Amino acid sequence: MTTSVPSRREPPKPPKRPNMGDVAQLAGVGIKTVSRVINEEPHVTPETAQRVWSAISALGYRPDFQAASLRRREKRTRMIGMMMAANPNPFWSEVRWAVEQTATEHDTLVLTSNLDGNAEHERRLLNALISRRLDGLVIATPTRSHSELAQEQQRGMSIVIVDGMPLGVDSDAVLSDVRAGAALGTRHLIEQGHRKLAYFGADHSLFTISERRRGFLDETVRAGIDISEVTIVEDLDEEKAYRNVIAVMQGENPPTAIFAGQILVTRGVIRGLRHLGLQHQVALVGFDDSELYDLLEPGITVIAQNPKAIGVTVAERIFSRIEGDSSPARQILLPVDLIQRGSGEIRPADG
Fold first, then answer.
1. Which 8-state DSSP code applies to residue 16?
2. Where are the stretches annotated Disordered (predicted)?
3. For 15-19, 118-122, 179-183, which range has the lowest pLDDT when averaged over its residues?
4. What DSSP state is assigned to residue 224?
5. What single DSSP character describes residue 332?
6. Domain segments of the chain as ranges
7. Which of 35-49, 169-183, 285-299 has the lowest mean pLDDT?
8. Does pLDDT of 106 surpass 60?
9. Which of 64, 184, 242, 269 has the most CB atoms within 10 Å of its CB?
10. CA 181, 340, 261, 250: dihedral to nearest 10 degrees?
11. What is the distance between the terminal CA atoms of the chain, rounded to a whole angstrom?
12. In sequence order, which residues have a C-beta less than 8 Å from that of residue 144 and are 6 or more positions away?
């Protein structure tokens, strides 16, 4: 009796990835012509370029921009890095989105690293990004010094600082005029008749947070209000702001108006006032907007930054540097807006 052994079927081989030669053959042109079209070089007719792009689409060909750029004289990798603090603040998500959208227009990939405040972890991530031979790096973290990047900048890496000032490195900085914004919000409260003010802020060691505090105090002094009678509570997150606003409002001589200097702090203040049932008695102006603030009663009056404009400006600056702009480093301040919704227009009970 003969036993047949079933034949072993070889697993199907994965389809071959199309290459530039396949595109050239389908389009009926030379490989150099395909390269010129992909890299947007001159001396290619529109009709030929269209045939090449049609072949690329039909084959599903994906140009290796990194390898191609490294072969060219400028040694571009078409990648930039973005280092951001791991932060639940939605402001940063919008900034990152705007940077990525602008980078896409430049055929550039954005590699993002979220940092947790651990210095050693930050150094490892920074080295990992640098090892990829980035064209540029966006720093959007509360780092106290950027001096470790000076050598990379000397080697040709373009660097832009977001929401802070460069320390130890000569680079562009893009940020909102937060000091003027805080002064505007404080002035608005004073114009409603408030003299008993409170400032609730986040980590005061961060540059932009300290600038908001300065703007608040600038306007308070300008209005002739005794600083010793102003309540200042700092180094808060949402939960600490919630607990502290309850304690302050239940203390002696509580404020009639609060300026909250950061979006998470604002959330904590909102929760605290609502817990006490004081949301219609105590005026509130917060820094940074939220898509839900207009749904509350009263709506939350805010000083609003424009994260999209910040992200676009950051990307434009870094691509300008990558493309050869050697002008002196610039500090770009973007304006902010006062959005009135009700909470900041509450007048003091005695006025």
1. P
2. 1-22
3. 118-122
4. T
5. E
6. 79-175+307-334, 178-305
7. 35-49
8. yes
9. 269
10. 140
11. 109
12. 167, 205
Edge-to-edge order in the sheet of strand 109-115: 109-115, 79-85, 136-140, 158-162, 172-176, 331-334
Instruction: HSE, CB side, 13 Å, CA atoms: give it for residue 262.
Output: 28
Those residues with Cβ within 8 angstroms of residue 190's Cβ, 6 or more apart along the chain or in another chain: 197, 219, 220, 223, 225
Identify the pLDDT of residue 156. Answer: 80
Alpha-helical segments (H) within 136-282: 150-154, 178-191, 207-222, 238-249, 263-276
Between CA 66 and CA 71, with CA 67 as vertex, the angle to 5 degrees is 115
Q: Which amino acid is at 87?
A: N
Q: What tens digit of pLDDT does each residue of 44-101 get? A: 898 998 999 899 888 878 666 555 554 544 567 889 999 887 666 778 889 999 999 9
* pTM given for the model: 0.76
Q: How far apart are CA 191 and CA 303, in angstroms?
A: 16
Q: Could you say which DSSP state residue 299 is in?
A: B
Contact by Cβ (8 Å): 288, 91: yes
Rg (CA), the chain: 28
**Intrachain domains 79-175+307-334 and 178-305 with the same fold:** yes
Quick: pLDDT tens for 153-179: 777 888 999 988 888 788 999 999 999
pLDDT at 132 over 90: no
pLDDT of the residue at 170: 86
Query: How deeply is 299 buried, as exposed, middle or buried, from its count of CB atoms within 10 A (0-12, 13-18, 19+)?
Result: middle
What architecture is the 79-175+307-334 domain classified under in CATH? 3-Layer(aba) Sandwich (3.40)
Extended beta strands in the chain, E state? 79-85, 109-115, 136-140, 158-162, 172-176, 197-200, 231-233, 257-260, 283-287, 301-304, 331-334, 337-339
Token pair recorded at residue 201: 């802020």
Contact indicator for 176, 336 with CB cutoff of 8 Å: yes
Fold classification of 178-305 (topology level): Rossmann fold (3.40.50)
Cα 296-255-176 angle, rounded to 5 deg? 60
